[in-house]
Amino acid sequence: MKRWVLAAVAAVAMAGPASAAVITLQSITNNGPGNFTFNYQGTLGPDEGVRAGDRLIIFDFRGYIAGSVFSNLANVTATTENTSTGVIITPGQNDDPNIPNLVFTYVGPDFQTSGGPFAAIDFNGIGARSTFGSTAFDAFFTQTTKNNPPAEAMTAAFQVGTVRVPAAAVPEPASWAMMLGGFGLLGAATRRRARTVRVTA
Prior knowledge:
Keywords: Signal. This protein has helices at residues 2-14, 173-200; strands at residues 22-30, 36-44, 48-49, 55-58, 70-71, 76-81, 101-106, 121-130, 134-146, 156-167. It is of the alpha+beta class.
């Protein structure tokens, strides 16, 4: 266990600030009741390129609608998996094996894997649909390929962080109060009816 933790810390340290991929939730489109499209965007850093097998994972995409994961990016496939192996999880987060992860995998030729740094590249056109329209923070993981410094070109770079994913709506405090009051009234009515039944039986 200790060896895994040290390896994870070393891997995160390998991705310095200049090469850090950034993933954010771009928008949520309401397609109707219980159907929301989550669109994500990101940035490929100046010291990063990609080669076949490099990937981006967004963990625990709650309320996932089967078959809805998508990628509009050339040479990037979109799939899901419930457990992702060979990854680093953001401290304080975990990979729930009961909730699908969105997995975007590069399958094209080497792109900017040496000779960097290059201009950062912004991208979007990836995401999926969920039955939930509210959000919470969960983890993301990226595996890219370093292009700079020259001695480290063509080696793997890893980045972890948090990103907004679907979550069930949490009632406002006022809503909680109304619900609790309603349960109290329901309980009182049930007790009163039970007493009445006993008296007339």
